[in-house]
Write a structure and sequence with these properties.
With 213 residues, the protein is an alpha/beta fold. It has one domain: P-loop containing nucleotide triphosphate hydrolases (Rossmann fold, 3-Layer(aba) Sandwich), CATH 3.40.50. Helix content is 60%, strand content 14%. The chain is built from 10 helices and 5 strands; from the N terminus they run H-E-H-E-H-H-H-E-H-E-H-H-E-H-H. It has helices spanning 2-15, 31-41, 49-58, 65-73, 80-97, 113-123, 139-153, 160-183, 196-205, 207-212, and strands spanning 19-25, 45-48, 103-107, 128-136, 187-191. It has a 5-stranded parallel sheet, with helices on both faces. Helix 3 (49-58) packs across helix 5 (80-97) and helix 5 crosses helix 6 (113-123). It is globular. The two termini are 34 Å apart.
């Protein structure tokens, strides 16, 4: 009986859709830091679109490495097909290793209308998007944080020239996506201009929303 039950649970896990929370905000809003805190306290896996792209760029033999590098340096958004493929692969690998890990915080995606259209085309039947967790922060604070981070991060895009381009890309391309989800009542906003601890406290105070939505 137990073997039969285990077999049934395994088959169910294969058909279970990932539960996704999109995490959006400007560069330096603290998305990665806050996601790490949520992961520590709740059963979510953090996937950073930017980290996945940087890892792919650095991977020996990657057919997309140079293309990704050029886009990142110019502060532009990498073609959606590449990003979605990396995200889907990461979710599948996570769920394959542990069938209890089906909740995901996807950080830094979708960043524009093309991203969202691509996601809806490829992933609409493969994942359930619960809501957008929006880290709201002024441009000035975001830039200051990134410049400070750039002193030790080694990231090629943590410099003023790249940052100004990234802020403009965010305002022109990503904010409209957040506003679109807001119209559908699917945005949870966190004041990310405060200290990390205070912002995390606000996220954790609202954790029931994350868990139950």
């Amino acid at each position: 009986v137990s073997r039969g039950a285990q077999s049934l649970l395994y088959r169910l896990s294969l058909t279970m859709k990932p539960q996704v929370v999109f995490v959006l905000g400007g560069p330096g809003a603290g998305k990665g830091t806050q996601c790490s805190k949520i992961v520590e306290n709740y059963s979510y896996t953090h996937l950073s679109a930017g980290d996945l792209l940087r890892a792919e760029r650095a991977r020996e033999g990657s057919e997309f490495g140079q293309l990704i590098d050029n886009y990142i340096k110019e502060g532009r958004i990498v073609p959606v097909e590449i990003t979605i493929n990396l995200l889907r692969k990461a979710m599948e690998e996570t769920m394959k290793k542990d069938d209890k890990k089906f909740r995901f915080l996807i950080d830094g995606f979708p960043r524009n209308e093309d991203n969202l259209t691509g996601w809806n085309t490829v992933m609409v039947d493969k994942a359930d998007v619960k809501f957008v967790l929006f880290f709201d922060c002024s441009n000035e604070v975001c830039i200051d944080r990134c410049l400070e981070r750039g002193k030790s991060s080694g990231r090629t895009d943590d410099n003023r020239e790249s940052l100004e381009k990234r802020i403009q890309t965010y305002l022109q391309s990503t904010r409209p996506i957040i506003e679109l989800y807001e119209k559908h009542g699917k945005v949870r906003t966190v004041d990310a201009s405060r200290s990390v601890d205070k912002s995390v406290a606000q996220v954790l105070e609202n954790h029931e929303t994350v868990q139950n939505s």
